[in-house]
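Before any further analysis, we paired sequence with structure tokens, yielding the entry below:
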Amino acid sequence: QWLSPPEAIEHFKSQEMRFAPPQFYELCRLCNFSSLQELHKFSSERALEGCERWMPVILTASDGYMQLLPGDELYPEDPDYTGEKRITLSTDKKVEDLMKEGSIFHRIVGKNISDLAVYVNIQAKYKHRNPVMINSSNSDFKSRL
């Protein structure tokens, strides 16, 4: 069954479908486009701009986790691209407290596999579009955005 990105996210919210955090992020990014033609036009226009290699870094909190992405204020300067360093970030703080303390976000926040939210307030590189910030649950940390 084919679904639009917003429809797929609705199925995710109702727990009819499951997505890993990177797929949830990309679905939120696809929500910027109302049609396949619009997406095709955008991708054709920015195709030569370049791309960026990302390595999500997981920060485990007392009640959930964050996948930190490049540009986030908590993202390490030297992420472990090869898996040799085994960087593990953890804190006793709650996710909500980390969100209230922060101001520069590029992260996927989760309490469990079916409770995800994307928070981005940085400029996307290479003329990309930031994801539409969609929360899959009732938790809401938008007060700092």
About this structure: The chain is about 25% helix and 15% strand.
